[in-house]
Amino acid sequence: MAPDPDVRTRPLSGRRLTPEESRERAGAFAREMATRRSVRAFSPAAVPDEVLERCVAAAASAPSGANKQPWKFVLVTGARDKRRIREAAEAEERAFYRERAPRRWLDDLAPLGTDENKEFLEVAPALIAVFAEVTGPAGERHYYVSESVGIAVGFLIAALHHAGLCTLTHTPSPMRFLRELLGRPANERAYVLLPVGYPAEDCRVPDIERKPLSDVLIRADAREDGA
User: What is the pTM (predicted TM-score) of this model?
Assistant: First the structure.
Protein backbone atom coordinates (compact mmCIF):
# COMPACT_ATOMS: atom_id res chain seq x y z
CA MET A 1 0.00 0.00 0.00
CA ALA A 2 1.48 3.33 -1.04
CA PRO A 3 1.82 5.92 1.76
CA ASP A 4 -0.55 8.88 1.75
CA PRO A 5 1.57 11.87 0.64
CA ASP A 6 -0.37 14.12 3.02
CA VAL A 7 0.53 12.02 6.08
CA ARG A 8 3.90 12.64 7.70
CA THR A 9 5.73 9.36 8.31
CA ARG A 10 9.16 8.07 9.33
CA PRO A 11 10.84 4.67 9.11
CA LEU A 12 9.95 2.13 11.78
CA SER A 13 12.85 1.69 14.16
CA GLY A 14 14.18 -1.66 15.31
CA ARG A 15 14.80 -4.91 13.51
CA ARG A 16 12.65 -7.89 12.72
CA LEU A 17 13.27 -10.74 15.15
CA THR A 18 13.71 -14.32 14.11
CA PRO A 19 10.92 -16.75 15.07
CA GLU A 20 13.25 -18.24 17.68
CA GLU A 21 13.94 -14.83 19.22
CA SER A 22 10.22 -14.03 19.25
CA ARG A 23 9.40 -17.31 20.99
CA GLU A 24 12.07 -16.72 23.61
CA ARG A 25 10.97 -13.16 24.31
CA ALA A 26 7.29 -14.07 24.42
CA GLY A 27 7.98 -16.93 26.79
CA ALA A 28 10.20 -14.85 29.07
CA PHE A 29 7.61 -12.06 29.26
CA ALA A 30 4.76 -14.49 29.95
CA ARG A 31 6.76 -16.14 32.74
CA GLU A 32 7.62 -12.77 34.25
CA MET A 33 4.04 -11.52 34.18
CA ALA A 34 2.77 -14.79 35.64
CA THR A 35 4.55 -13.83 38.87
CA ARG A 36 2.71 -10.50 39.12
CA ARG A 37 0.18 -10.28 41.94
CA SER A 38 -1.96 -7.55 43.41
CA VAL A 39 -0.37 -6.51 46.71
CA ARG A 40 -1.95 -4.88 49.74
CA ALA A 41 1.01 -5.15 52.14
CA PHE A 42 3.70 -2.64 51.23
CA SER A 43 7.07 -1.69 52.65
CA PRO A 44 7.33 2.06 53.36
CA ALA A 45 10.79 2.09 51.71
CA ALA A 46 11.04 4.86 49.13
CA VAL A 47 11.12 4.12 45.41
CA PRO A 48 13.55 6.19 43.31
CA ASP A 49 11.70 8.91 41.39
CA GLU A 50 13.53 7.98 38.20
CA VAL A 51 12.10 4.46 38.34
CA LEU A 52 8.55 5.78 38.64
CA GLU A 53 9.14 8.33 35.90
CA ARG A 54 10.42 5.69 33.50
CA CYS A 55 7.43 3.45 34.22
CA VAL A 56 5.05 6.34 33.51
CA ALA A 57 6.99 7.07 30.32
CA ALA A 58 6.34 3.48 29.24
CA ALA A 59 2.64 3.91 30.00
CA ALA A 60 2.50 7.13 28.00
CA SER A 61 3.84 5.27 24.95
CA ALA A 62 0.52 3.40 24.64
CA PRO A 63 -1.63 3.77 21.52
CA SER A 64 -4.68 6.01 21.74
CA GLY A 65 -7.66 7.06 19.64
CA ALA A 66 -6.49 9.57 17.00
CA ASN A 67 -3.27 9.86 19.05
CA LYS A 68 -5.01 12.19 21.51
CA GLN A 69 -3.17 10.55 24.44
CA PRO A 70 -6.06 11.31 26.84
CA TRP A 71 -4.29 10.52 30.10
CA LYS A 72 -2.66 12.22 33.03
CA PHE A 73 -0.61 10.47 35.74
CA VAL A 74 -0.50 12.23 39.12
CA LEU A 75 2.32 11.04 41.39
CA VAL A 76 1.56 11.38 45.11
CA THR A 77 4.29 10.80 47.71
CA GLY A 78 3.51 13.31 50.49
CA ALA A 79 2.19 11.90 53.78
CA ARG A 80 -0.53 14.56 54.08
CA ASP A 81 -1.94 13.92 50.61
CA LYS A 82 -1.81 10.15 51.06
CA ARG A 83 -3.71 10.41 54.35
CA ARG A 84 -6.39 12.62 52.81
CA ILE A 85 -6.79 10.21 49.92
CA ARG A 86 -7.03 7.25 52.29
CA GLU A 87 -9.68 8.94 54.42
CA ALA A 88 -11.81 9.83 51.39
CA ALA A 89 -11.38 6.40 49.81
CA GLU A 90 -12.32 4.60 53.01
CA ALA A 91 -15.47 6.71 53.33
CA GLU A 92 -16.58 5.49 49.90
CA GLU A 93 -15.52 1.93 50.66
CA ARG A 94 -17.51 1.86 53.92
CA ALA A 95 -20.60 2.88 52.00
CA PHE A 96 -19.87 0.21 49.40
CA TYR A 97 -19.34 -2.68 51.82
CA ARG A 98 -22.18 -1.70 54.16
CA GLU A 99 -24.82 -0.32 51.82
CA ARG A 100 -24.16 -0.53 48.07
CA ALA A 101 -22.65 -3.93 47.33
CA PRO A 102 -25.04 -6.81 46.53
CA ARG A 103 -24.62 -9.90 48.69
CA ARG A 104 -23.28 -11.91 45.76
CA TRP A 105 -20.55 -9.33 45.10
CA LEU A 106 -19.45 -9.48 48.74
CA ASP A 107 -19.43 -13.28 48.59
CA ASP A 108 -17.18 -13.15 45.51
CA LEU A 109 -14.80 -10.77 47.32
CA ALA A 110 -14.66 -12.85 50.50
CA PRO A 111 -11.86 -15.24 49.33
CA LEU A 112 -9.66 -12.21 48.65
CA GLY A 113 -9.97 -10.87 52.20
CA THR A 114 -10.76 -7.30 51.18
CA ASP A 115 -12.68 -4.80 53.30
CA GLU A 116 -13.11 -1.05 53.74
CA ASN A 117 -9.74 -0.62 55.46
CA LYS A 118 -7.21 0.77 52.94
CA GLU A 119 -4.10 1.19 55.06
CA PHE A 120 -1.94 0.54 52.00
CA LEU A 121 -2.85 3.98 50.65
CA GLU A 122 -0.71 5.49 53.40
CA VAL A 123 1.96 2.83 53.77
CA ALA A 124 2.90 2.55 50.09
CA PRO A 125 5.61 5.13 49.34
CA ALA A 126 3.88 6.33 46.17
CA LEU A 127 0.41 6.56 44.70
CA ILE A 128 -0.16 7.02 40.99
CA ALA A 129 -3.59 8.45 40.26
CA VAL A 130 -4.52 7.97 36.62
CA PHE A 131 -6.96 10.43 35.12
CA ALA A 132 -8.78 10.19 31.81
CA GLU A 133 -9.20 13.37 29.80
CA VAL A 134 -12.81 13.23 28.64
CA THR A 135 -12.07 16.20 26.38
CA GLY A 136 -8.99 18.29 25.73
CA PRO A 137 -8.29 21.37 27.89
CA ALA A 138 -10.08 23.61 25.38
CA GLY A 139 -13.01 21.24 24.97
CA GLU A 140 -11.70 19.49 21.86
CA ARG A 141 -13.04 16.02 21.30
CA HIS A 142 -11.18 12.89 22.36
CA TYR A 143 -11.89 9.41 21.02
CA TYR A 144 -12.02 5.98 22.69
CA VAL A 145 -10.98 7.52 25.99
CA SER A 146 -11.69 4.57 28.28
CA GLU A 147 -10.10 2.11 25.89
CA SER A 148 -7.00 4.28 25.42
CA VAL A 149 -6.48 4.92 29.12
CA GLY A 150 -7.09 1.25 29.91
CA ILE A 151 -4.30 0.25 27.53
CA ALA A 152 -1.96 2.82 29.12
CA VAL A 153 -2.75 1.48 32.59
CA GLY A 154 -1.93 -2.03 31.38
CA PHE A 155 1.42 -0.76 30.11
CA LEU A 156 2.01 0.95 33.47
CA ILE A 157 1.25 -2.15 35.55
CA ALA A 158 3.55 -4.25 33.36
CA ALA A 159 6.32 -1.65 33.57
CA LEU A 160 6.07 -1.42 37.35
CA HIS A 161 6.25 -5.19 37.70
CA HIS A 162 9.20 -5.35 35.30
CA ALA A 163 10.97 -2.78 37.51
CA GLY A 164 10.55 -5.04 40.55
CA LEU A 165 7.70 -3.08 42.11
CA CYS A 166 4.29 -4.13 43.37
CA THR A 167 0.99 -2.41 42.88
CA LEU A 168 -2.76 -2.74 43.22
CA THR A 169 -5.58 -1.46 41.01
CA HIS A 170 -7.74 0.45 43.47
CA THR A 171 -11.04 1.83 42.18
CA PRO A 172 -13.31 3.11 44.95
CA SER A 173 -16.59 4.21 43.43
CA PRO A 174 -17.35 6.99 42.95
CA MET A 175 -13.89 8.60 42.68
CA ARG A 176 -14.84 12.26 42.33
CA PHE A 177 -13.00 12.94 45.58
CA LEU A 178 -9.71 12.13 43.87
CA ARG A 179 -10.10 14.88 41.28
CA GLU A 180 -11.07 17.36 43.99
CA LEU A 181 -8.25 16.45 46.39
CA LEU A 182 -5.61 16.58 43.67
CA GLY A 183 -6.93 19.75 42.06
CA ARG A 184 -7.49 18.27 38.62
CA PRO A 185 -9.58 20.17 36.04
CA ALA A 186 -13.19 19.44 35.18
CA ASN A 187 -12.31 17.78 31.86
CA GLU A 188 -10.61 14.92 33.71
CA ARG A 189 -12.14 12.01 35.58
CA ALA A 190 -10.36 9.63 37.93
CA TYR A 191 -9.77 6.28 36.26
CA VAL A 192 -7.74 4.22 38.76
CA LEU A 193 -5.52 4.70 41.81
CA LEU A 194 -2.34 2.62 42.00
CA PRO A 195 -0.41 2.31 45.27
CA VAL A 196 3.17 1.48 44.29
CA GLY A 197 6.17 0.18 46.23
CA TYR A 198 8.12 -2.83 47.38
CA PRO A 199 6.30 -5.66 49.17
CA ALA A 200 6.41 -5.83 52.95
CA GLU A 201 8.75 -8.51 54.29
CA ASP A 202 5.79 -10.52 55.58
CA CYS A 203 3.66 -9.88 52.49
CA ARG A 204 1.14 -12.59 51.68
CA VAL A 205 -1.32 -12.74 48.79
CA PRO A 206 -4.51 -14.76 48.23
CA ASP A 207 -3.90 -18.32 47.05
CA ILE A 208 -5.71 -18.11 43.73
CA GLU A 209 -5.11 -19.52 40.26
CA ARG A 210 -5.37 -18.01 36.78
CA LYS A 211 -7.57 -19.62 34.17
CA PRO A 212 -5.61 -21.91 31.84
CA LEU A 213 -4.85 -20.67 28.34
CA SER A 214 -7.27 -23.22 26.91
CA ASP A 215 -10.11 -21.43 28.71
CA VAL A 216 -9.34 -17.95 27.40
CA LEU A 217 -7.83 -18.45 23.93
CA ILE A 218 -10.32 -19.29 21.17
CA ARG A 219 -8.93 -20.08 17.74
CA ALA A 220 -11.36 -18.79 15.12
CA ASP A 221 -9.53 -20.68 12.36
CA ALA A 222 -10.19 -24.00 14.11
CA ARG A 223 -13.89 -23.12 14.35
CA GLU A 224 -13.96 -22.33 10.64
CA ASP A 225 -12.21 -25.58 9.72
CA GLY A 226 -14.79 -27.52 11.70
CA ALA A 227 -17.78 -25.79 10.10
Answer: 0.93
